[in-house]
DNA sequence: CTTATTAGCCTGTGGTTAGT
DNA sequence: ACTAACCACAGGCTAATAAG
C-alpha cells in the first residue's frame, strides 16, 4: 500500500438538528434516541441560547468552543445540518451554504438547534444492531439545495449506514452470524510477520471454518508447526519459489477448523503441475453411515457423501502467464470433475442420473487472488489481444463449469503519487474472487475491510440448507472476554495495546482514513517490536535469577 | 487507438555495519 | 554480545511510454 499524505476521508461527525421538540426532550421519541445511540451518536444542546444573526461559520466556531475535544474533526468536516421529524424513520442531512445564518436555517427547518456528535471510536461495537419494531431504522438522506435531487440523493444500504463506527467488526459480525460453512480468503502478503494477527483474526474476531491464504511467502523448510493456530489445522499448503532467485514468492495455504477437520481432508486428486492451488474436500452428509447404508438397502441410492470442494488459488500477475494458469485451472477443474464420479454413473462424465435418487453431488467454491481485475476485464472488448484472450479464458472457465463470481466490491485499494504532483491517485480493483457452481447454497458473501495487507478479506458462507445452515450462528463474546480467550490460547506478540491498535487500524482502512491507517500500521510494528524486546529482557532476567 | 513493455514505487526480508 | 540503522535485493503492482 502506498503511503498517503492527503486526506481521502471526510467523516460526518457532527449533525445539527432543529430542536423543535418540546418538554425538554432532545429527541422526537425514545426510538430515535435508541437508534442514534446504537449507531454511536451522542447529543448536546448548544448552551446559552443562539444568536440568530450568527452565520454558519460562527455557529461552527461556537460548537468548536463547546466541544474542544472534537476540534480536529470539526476542522476537517465542518458541520452539516440535519432534520429529524417525529415518527419519521429518516434523518435528512442538508449541506449547509456558507454565509447562511441561523435565522435562515430556522426559517427552513424550525427553531432551536440540537447538536448530534458522533461518539469516539470506543463506542460499543460488538453486536450488530438488529431492527426491531420499537426501534426505528434510521436512514440518512443527503439533500442539497444546489443540486438536482437525482444527483445528490444518496439512499444508503442498511449495512453501510446502520453499521456502527467499527465497520470491520460489523462486517465480521455479519460473517459470524451467517450459518453454514464459513470460507474466507485473504492475500496476506507474507504470513511470517502476520502470524499473530492471523491468530487474532481467527480466534477472537471471526468464526471462519476454512481460511485460505495466498502470498504466504513461506519456504519449503518452514514447518507447519511455526504457523499453527490453536483450534485450526493446516490441511493443505503449497509454497511458491521464484525460478530465478529461489526466494519465496506466492504460496497458498488452507486452515481448517479442528471441529470441521474430521469431515475435511486434502483432496486426493492432483491438480495440474505449475498451478499454485490447493484443494480441500469437506463432507457434507452428516446423517451417519448406518442410516446411509439402510437408505441404500431400501432405495438403492448411492453411499457416497456429498462434497464441498474448496479450491484455494493464487494466480500471480503477468497477463500471458495468467492465461496459461487459468487454462491450467480449467483443466484441473476438468480433472476434479472427472474424479467426482457418482457411485452409479450414468453418463460419460460420471454425472449422476437425475432420475436416480442420489445425494453425492460435489459442489465447488473456488477462491483466491486471481490478479485479474474483474471490473476492468468486464469492460475489455478488444478480442484477439492478450487482454482479450485473458477475458476469454476467464469467461470459458466460468461458463464451462457454471461458476458464478460472488464478490461485487473492491478487494484491493492502491494509492499512488501522481507524477510531478503532491496528490495521490486511488485505484480500486476486484482481484480476489470467490466462485461457486452452487449459488443456491450461498448464505452470504462479501468483503471484510481488515487491514492486514493491502488486500481485503473475501468470504462466503455456504450451506445446503439455507434456513438451518450447517451449524448455528456464532455469538461472539464481549471484546474483553474475546481478548482474554485469545491471550490464554496464544503465546504471541500481541498484547492488549496491539490488539486495540489493530482494531483501530482496521476501522481506519474501512473508512479509508489512509493517514491514520499508515500511522497505526507503524505503531503496531513498533509496539510488537517492543513486546519482543520486553519478552527477551524478561527471559534474560529469569535466567539470571 | 490499442497493446506490450518498462520504469517506478512500494513491500518484506536478510545481511552488514556501527554503536552501546 | 546485542541492537538499531542502513542497504540491497526480489517480488507485486500500476502508470507511463513505446511500439504496432
TrEMBL record:
Keyword annotations of the record: Coiled coil
SUPFAM superfamilies: DNase I-like
Coiled-coil positions: 517-544
InterPro entries found in the cross-reference section: Endo/exonu/phosph_ase_sf
Protein name: Endonuclease/exonuclease/phosphatase domain-containing protein
Amino acid at each position: 500500500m502506498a503511503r498517503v499524505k492527503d486526506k481521502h476521508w471526510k467523516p460526518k461527525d457532527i449533525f445539527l438538528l432543529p430542536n423543535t421538540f418540546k418538554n425538554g426532550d432532545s429527541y422526537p421519541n425514545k426510538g430515535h434516541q435508541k437508534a442514534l445511540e446504537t449507531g454511536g451518536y451522542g447529543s448536546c444542546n448548544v448552551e446559552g441560547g443562539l444568536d440568530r444573526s450568527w452565520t454558519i461559520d460562527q455557529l461552527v466556531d461556537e460548537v468548536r468552543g463547546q466541544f474542544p475535544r472534537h476540534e480536529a474533526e470539526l476542522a476537517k468536516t465542518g458541520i452539516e445540518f440535519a432534520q429529524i421529524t417525529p415518527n419519521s424513520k429518516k434523518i435528512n442531512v442538508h449541506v449547509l451554504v456558507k454565509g447562511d445564518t441561523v435565522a435562515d436555517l430556522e426559517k427552513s427547518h424550525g427553531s432551536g438547534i440540537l447538536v448530534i456528535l458522533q461518539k469516539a471510536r470506543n463506542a460499543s461495537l460488538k453486536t450488530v444492531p438488529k431492527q426491531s419494531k420499537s426501534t426505528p431504522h434510521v436512514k440518512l438522506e443527503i439533500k442539497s439545495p444546489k443540486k438536482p435531487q437525482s444527483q445528490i440523493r444518496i439512499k444508503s444500504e442498511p449495512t453501510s449506514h446502520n453499521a456502527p463506527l467499527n465497520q470491520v467488526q460489523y462486517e465480521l459480525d455479519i460473517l459470524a452470524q451467517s450459518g453454514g460453512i464459513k470460507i474466507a480468503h485473504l492475500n496476506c502478503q507474507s504470513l511470517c510477520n502476520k502470524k499473530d494477527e492471523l491468530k487474532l483474526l481467527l480466534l477472537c474476531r471471526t468464526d471462519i471454518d476454512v481460511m485460505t491464504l495466498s502470498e504466504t511467502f513461506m519456504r519449503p523448510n518452514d514447518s507447519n508447526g511455526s504457523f499453527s493456530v490453536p483450534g485450526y489445522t493446516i490441511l493443505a499448503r503449497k509454497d511458491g519459489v521464484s525460478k530465478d532467485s529461489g526466494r519465496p514468492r506466492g504460496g497458498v495455504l488452507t486452515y481448517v477448523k479442528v471441529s470441521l477437520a474430521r469431515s475435511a481432508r486434502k483432496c486426493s486428486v492432483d491438480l495440474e503441475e505449475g498451478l499454485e492451488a490447493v484443494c480441500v474436500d469437506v463432507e457434507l452428509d452428516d446423517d451417519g453411515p448406518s442410516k446411509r447404508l439402510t437408505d441404500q438397502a431400501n432405495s438403492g441410492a448411492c453411499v457416497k457423501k456429498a462434497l464441498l470442494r474448496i479450491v484455494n488459488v493464487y494466480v500471480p500477475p503477468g497477463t500471458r502467464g495468467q492465461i496459461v494458469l487459468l487454462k491450467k485451472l480449467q483443466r484441473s477443474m476438468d480433472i476434479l470433475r472427472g474424479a467426482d464420479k457418482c457411485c452409479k454413473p450414468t453418463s460419460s462424465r460420471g454425472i449422476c442420473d437425475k432420475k436416480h435418487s442420489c445425494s453425492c453431488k460435489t459442489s465447488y467454491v473456488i477462491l483466491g487472488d486471481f490478479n485479474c481485475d474483474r471490473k476492468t476485464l468486464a469492460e475489455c472488448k478488444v478480442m484477439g489481444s492478450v487482454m482479450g484472450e485473458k477475458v476469454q479464458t476467464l469467461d470459458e472457465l466460468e461458463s464451462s463449469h457454471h461458476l458464478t463470481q460472488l464478490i461485487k466490491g473492491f478487494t484491493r485499494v492502491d494509492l499512488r503519487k501522481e507524477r510531478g504532483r503532491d496528490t495521490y491517485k486511488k485505484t480500486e480493483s476486484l482481484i480476489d474472487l470467490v466462485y461457486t457452481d452452487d449459488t443456491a447454497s450461498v448464505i452470504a458473501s462479501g468483503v471484510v475491510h481488515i487491514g492486514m495487507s493491502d488486500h481485503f478479506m473475501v468470504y462466503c458462507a455456504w450451506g445446503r440448507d439455507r434456513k438451518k445452515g450447517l451449524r448455528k450462528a456464532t455469538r461472539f463474546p464481549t471484546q474483553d472476554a474475546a481478548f482474554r480467550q485469545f491471550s490464554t490460547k496464544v503465546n504471541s506478540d500481541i498484547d492488549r495495546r496491539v490488539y486495540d491498535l489493530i482494531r483501530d487500524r482496521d476501522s481506519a482502512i474501512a473508512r479509508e482514513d489512509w493517514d491514520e491507517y499508515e500511522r497505526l500500521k507503524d505503531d503496531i510494528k513498533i509496539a510488537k517490536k517492543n513486546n519482543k524486546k520486553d519478552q527477551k529482557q524478561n527471559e534474560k532476567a529469569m535466567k539470571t535469577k
